[in-house]
Amino acid sequence: MVKNTMNVVKGVGAGLVAGAVVGYVGSQMKKNPKQTKKKAAHAVSAVENLLDNVQAMLK
To answer: Where do the domains of the chain lie?
Structure first.
């Protein structure tokens, strides 16, 4: 039961991250592509850390 819950949490988190990144990059890419790529990389890294922390709390 716990593993199923963890898989759902991971899936929801991954979906949220993917949607946020695609939306952000799509809207900002028109303005300044170089800066957008840098910010997107930082955002993805921050979300990965967040998901790792949530996963550690649920163990």
So the answer is: 33-59
